[in-house]
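Quick review question:
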């Protein structure tokens, strides 16, 4: 029960007792009243515990990818749950690579040119992946196939909304289902 509920209950009990005293004070005496006022002092007793009710601390985010070493797709949402960054990943398929092999070994991280080597077979299902403290997150951009990649460290929120041909990411996952390394797979202009 809340502190306010205990206070209301104690106040109601006090008022009931006070009403009974007033009613009983006018009954049972054959002698006329001396005309003096009667003062009754009541101190309510509060039995609520100090601090009142406490709300439960936010639960740590639950991973949907425990058991995988890698995952691949597009980040659709980034949030913070109980102080932990969390990705929602729309899982994509790498052409010619089974999901079991992708989950075990990942996908090639070299930039590609020409047609994209992946497809999105289900845009409605996403997977929750908490980001481990200290995870390495890299964004790479390809200006041309014959030039070096431009690569920089980014925050998880910067992974959402990347441009086409740069928006897929490879996520390396630990035994707890947390992302320890994330990098996008850039496509070079063809």
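Suggested answer, residue by residue:
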């Amino acid at each position: 029960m809340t502190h306010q509920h205990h206070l209301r209950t104690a106040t109601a009990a006090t008022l009931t007792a006070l009403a009974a005293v007033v009613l009983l004070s006018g009954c049972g005496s054959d002698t006329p009243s001396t005309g003096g006022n009667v003062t009754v002092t009541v101190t309510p007793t509060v039995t609520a515990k100090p601090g009142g009710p406490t709300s439960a601390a936010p639960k740590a985010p639950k991973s949907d990818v425990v058991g995988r070493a890698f995952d691949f797709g597009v980040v659709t949402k980034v949030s913070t749950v109980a102080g932990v960054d969390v990705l929602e990943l729309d899982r994509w398929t790498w052409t010619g690579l089974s999901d079991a092999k992708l989950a075990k070994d990942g996908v090639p991280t070299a930039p590609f040119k020409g047609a994209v080597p992946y497809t999105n077979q289900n845009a409605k299902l996403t997977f929750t992946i908490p980001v481990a403290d200290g995870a390495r997150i890299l964004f790479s951009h390809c200006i041309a196939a014959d030039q070096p990649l431009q690569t920089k460290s980014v925050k998880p929120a910067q992974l959402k909304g990347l441009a086409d041909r740069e928006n897929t990411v490879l996520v390396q996952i630990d035994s707890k289902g947390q992302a320890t390394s994330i990098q996008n797979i850039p496509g070079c202009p063809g």
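Why it works: The CA atoms of residues 61 and 81 lie 6 Å apart. The two ends are 67 Å apart (CA to CA).
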